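Morning!

This is the sequence you dropped in the shared folder:
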Amino acid sequence: MTTPVRTVDETAKVKATATDIGDGRAGPQRPSRAEAEAAFRTIIRWAGDDPDREGLRETPARAARAYEEFFRGYDEDPAAVLRKTFEETGGYDEMVMLRGVRFESHCEHHIVPIIGRAWVAYVPAGRVVGISKLARLVEIFAKRLQIQEKMTAQIADTIQEVLEPQGVAVVIKAVHHCMTTRGVRQPATDLVTSRMLGVFRDNRSTRQEFLALID
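The structure's back. Tokens below.
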């Protein structure tokens, strides 16, 4: 399997915006459901078919409902997911790692699926968060139009900002249908991205421990 690796530039500070880690409802008013369905009817006609034939008559409504599910991450605040923490940790200050969180996202360039898994770790500084919240954080960012590099940075930066741990590490491995089912058509290829902050960036042994646990 060919595995190109891209590491997010750690020297560039990602600024928190309403679109990135705030309220996904920020921005222009959304079109109505009727407008969305009309747009799908137009796409069907553009593709060369008849949206009024029996098999396609209900497709615009179904597609609109599907898109609500695909992109529900815009309606959730990822930072809020991490705000409930626990301080009774018994002094635990070693790595906390959630492995292989499966996600489905969509490429913002072609609106086709990105299917992958995320490995998320942090070293706490006095408080921890429920492990399901880490999976939920991945899900929120995945359910938006994405590029994998940005999603990797968003997950890591949100954990760092909200929990203020000693460090955060995120690795994502994903298959992009924009290059497996169209374009260059390389179905055996996945993309790997990583983001290392704090001790994962500065301490080689901590970083190696994390990377060893991925496989």
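Headline: The longest strand covers residues 96-107.

More detail when I'm at my desk.
O.
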